[in-house]
Amino acid sequence: MSSDVLAPAAAPSRWQRFKDSQLVHSFSRDKLAMVSFTIFVLYLLAALLAPLIAPYNPYDPSAIDIMDSEIPPAWQEEADERFALGTDAQGRDMLSTMLYGTRISLMIGICAVMLQMFLGVMIGLTAGYFGGRIDSFLMRLADIQLSFSTMMVAIVVLAVFQAAFGAELYADLAIFMLILVIGIAEWPQYARTVRASVLAEKHKEYVDAARVMGFKSSRIMWRHILPNTLSPILVISTVQVANAIISEASLSFLGLGMPVSQPSLGSLISSGFEYIFSGSWWITVIPGIVLVVLVLVMNLLGDWLRDVLNPKLYKG
User: What topology does the record note for this protein and the membrane (predicted)?
Assistant: First the structure.
C-alpha cells in the first residue's frame, strides 16, 4: 500500500466549515433573507461612506442656503436638479442629510445593543452559574427593570438631564446619553436569555470535566459555557438593533434625541412634521420610509436567524 492511501485526510479549514454550515445553506435558499441582508449591507455602506458619497455636508453652515429651503424632490414641479430628494426647512440637501442621519441612527443602535449585551451577558452568566442568593438578587433586579418601559425611563432621564445641564451641553452629549439610556434600559432581555441557557449547560459533562481539571469559575463561564449560548444572543441582538433605532427615533421625535444640528432619521422626521400639511411632505415621509425599511430588514433577518438557530423550528 502506498503512503498516500494511508495518509489521513486534511482537516477542513474554518472557511470551508463555514461554507458547509447549516447557516450558509439556509441563507442561500432563503431569498427573503438574502434580499434583507443585501439591503442592510447597502445601508451600512451608505452610512460608513456618507462623507464620500453625500453631495453636500449638512454639518457645514457655509454649504447651506436658507433660500434653498423646502425645494421639492426632482420628480415634482419647481424642483432643482442640485437636490435629487429636495431640501428641508433649513435648506439642507435631503439625500445628504439622510446619509448622515442613517449613520447616526445605526451608530446609536449598534452601540446601545453592545452595551445591552455586555451588561446582560455578565449578569446572566453570573446569575445562572452561581445560583442561590446571587441569582435571586440579580433576577429581582431584572424584574424591577422590566417593570419600567424603555421609553418611560429614557424620557425621564433625558428630560431631567436636559433641564439640569441645559440644551447646549445636552446637544454635545446627545449620542452618548442615548446610547447609555437605551443600553441600560434593555439589558434584562439578554440576562434572562443567557441565564436560562447557562442553567441548561452548567450541569453537562464538559462543565463537570472542566471543574475536575481545576479550571476557575471565570474560565468555565467565559471559555466553555458562554460559546454555547451565542445562538440566542445573536438572534436577540439582531432584533434589539431595530428596537434601539426605533427608540432613538421616537425620542428624537419627542425632542429628547439628537439635536437638529446633528440629524438622525428620527430628528429628521420630527423636524419636518410641522411642514407635512403645508405641502412639504418629503421632509418627513422620505426619512420615514428609509427608517421603516431599515427596521423591517433588521426584523426579517432576526426572524430568519431565530428559525435557523432553533432546531425545533428549522425545516431545512
Answer: Multi-pass membrane protein
